[in-house]
Amino acid sequence: EAGVAQSPRYKIIEKRQSVAFWCNPISGHATLYWYQQILGQGPKLLIQFQNNGVVDDSQLPKDRFSAERLKGVDSTLKIQPAKLEDSAVYLCASSPRARTGMNTEAFFGQGTRLTVV
Amino acid sequence: GEDVEQSLFLSVREGDSSVINCTYTDSSSTYLYWYKQEPGAGLQLLTYIFSNMDMKQDQRLTVLLNKKDKHLSLRIADTQTGDSAIYFCAEPYTGRRALTFGSGTRLQVQP
Predict the structure, then answer these.
(1) Each residue's pLDDT tens digit, B71-111
(2) H/E stretch holding A92
(3) B109 exposure class (CB count in 10 Å sphere: 0-12, 13-18, 19+)
(4) A18, A60, B56, B93: least surrounded by Cβ within 10 Å?
């Protein structure tokens, strides 16, 4: 079974530029997550999709971050304009559909390392 | 769960046991997880425990859960150099499926 695919692996941009990340979840997984992992910290949820609808974007800085999941499969996360503090690894994860309270095991991609200079 | 806490660093000798500790916040969490992250890689699920269990063993891994103290631990028996990585404890956000992670414990295994 193919895992979660992300691209690019690395990206370096100047502050105030824009950047986009792409994620292809595991086939058949209804739930998709984007996490931000700053160096030395654990991942923090940015946004969660169920199929092509947003379930939770309460921690997404909406003035500069946006995400979409057209057709309920692939997803893109965009930052515009980028700030120095956006330097982090952006991780995409997916989970199969499950009832509330059931195992919420998430499968992670390798991430995109963003450096803003 | 909003604040999952872990110690930052653990160093052990090859062949010894490692114990990584975690405290979580949400007593209603149904599952608790341990993930492993190697340098430059994403997170890999190691194991999980259902909240009605006190202990789960999976080969060299033993998970202990103390619900009263909201304490979770991961024991790695016969630790190998390949176990060197960052280990994250995670629980679901209260009422939601997404996971909240601790800051991670860096395990260093000395040959």
Answers:
(1) 999 999 999 999 999 999 998 876 667 888 999 999 999 99
(2) strand A88-95
(3) buried
(4) A18
